[in-house]
Design goal:
With 331 residues, the protein is an alpha/beta fold. It has two domains: 179 residues, Thiolase/Chalcone synthase (Peroxisomal Thiolase, Chain A, domain 1); 145 residues, Peroxisomal Thiolase, Chain A, domain 1, CATH 3.40.47.10. Helix content is 29%, strand content 24%. Helix 6 links the parallel strand 11 and strand 12. Helix 5 crosses helix 6. The protein is globular, with a radius of gyration of 19 Å. One of its GO terms (biological process) is secondary metabolite biosynthetic process. This is 3-oxoacyl-(Acyl carrier protein) synthase.
Length: 331
């Protein structure tokens, strides 16, 4: 890939509501927590927190970190699952309005589960290359803890799914200094796993939930957990191999979705990178869905300069991606 189509990471920002111990939340809901082995804490949204408000807070922080004015934005991609209202309400456009982006900026909502941030980086790279460069923003925000039945043992794997937001300001062919460079990503899809985690009600197939049901509850459907582990292992390994083949670089450090504590140990074995070289935010935040990847990126960039390649690894049950983050080009 030519340097002209490499995406500069200019700045990052996050918004995280207060965290609570997962076992405390589940016990209050009446669950037996004696066998729980997941992330110890989870962020739960405050009453006034919504995807657009949390996302706007994260983007304002990212713009300040980048030293970029809102009127420079040409594209705002919102890549979260959660939304304030059903479409055609645009979370991206609401965030644009809150942050002061102007009419020459396009706000676009895209949804691909927890793979959203990596997909949005890839999309911003292509969009800016096609449109002659400029500045774009990627925003991810989730408010989904309320969709989890914390009293259900069947939902134990979802107890640590938490709320929050993250953002990155990116650019191509501008004078702004880069903190890191996004080279690109490779993806693989297993389409038969679509609907593995399902919000059953609210769409055209089941518009209204029956009386007494939580219309927003997420359900684990279909495949056994053993099969899911095997399929995830293949998805992560195949996308990583495609990325390494494309760029000829094998990163030794990882920024990844914080799906579950034990799950990351499995992925570490599959891709043959020690878990000690994974950047972990799950112990403090839980799994914040699409926001995880940029929360990790923000932590890495705020800890010091990027000096080596990082694997950006991300997934949703039916799709997997591996991206390459590099140190900024000298000069």
């Amino acid at each position: 890939m030519s340097t002209e189509t490499t995406l500069s990471i200019l700045g990052s920002g996050i918004y995280l509501p207060p965290a609570r111990p997962v076992c405390e939340v589940a016990a209050e809901a009446g669950a037996d927590v004696s066998n729980y082995q997941g992330w110890p804490n989870v962020c739960h949204a405050l009453a006034e927190d919504h995807p657009s408000t949390m996302g706007a807070t994260a983007l304002k922080a990212a713009l300040a970190d980048a030293g970029v004015a809102p009127d420079e934005l040409r594209l705002v991609l919102f890549a979260g699952i959660s939304r304030d209202y059903l479409p055609s309400f645009s979370v991206a456009t609401e965030i644009m309005q809150s942050c002061g982006a102007q009419g020459h900026c396009l706000g676009l909502d895209m949804t691909i589960g927890c793979l959203g941030a990596l997909s949005a980086l890839d999309m911003a790279q292509g969009w800016l290359a096609t449109h002659g460069g400029g500045v774009a923003a990627i925003v991810t925000a989730e408010r989904w803890s309320y969709t989890v039945d914390h009293g259900s043992m069947a939902s134990m794997g979802l107890w640590a799914h938490g709320d929050g937001a993250s953002a990155a300001v990116v650019a191509m062919d501008t004078p702004h200094p880069a903190k890191a460079m996004f080279r690109g990503a490779e993806f693989t899809t297993q389409s038969d796993l679509n609907g593995t985690v399902l919000v059953k009600y609210g769409g055209t197939r089941h518009p209204v939930a029956p009386a007494g049901a939580n219309p927003a509850e997420r359900l684990f459907m279909g495949s056994s957990r053993a099969d899911i582990r095997e399929r995830y292992a293949y998805g992560y390994s195949s996308s990583l191999e495609a990325m390494k083949k494309r760029f000829g670089i094998a990163p030794k450090r990882v920024i990844i979705n914080q799906t579950a504590a034990l799950f990351l140990h499995l992925i570490a074995q599959v891709i043959n990178i020690p878990i000690e070289d994974f950047l972990l935010t799950g112990p403090e935040t839980g799994h914040v869905g699409s926001a995880d990847l940029l929360i990790g990126l923000d932590r890495m960039l705020k800890s010091g300069p990027c000096h080596e390649p990082y694997l950006l690894a991300s997934s949703t049950p039916y799709a997997f991606g591996a991206g390459l983050l590099m140190p900024p080009t000298p000069g």
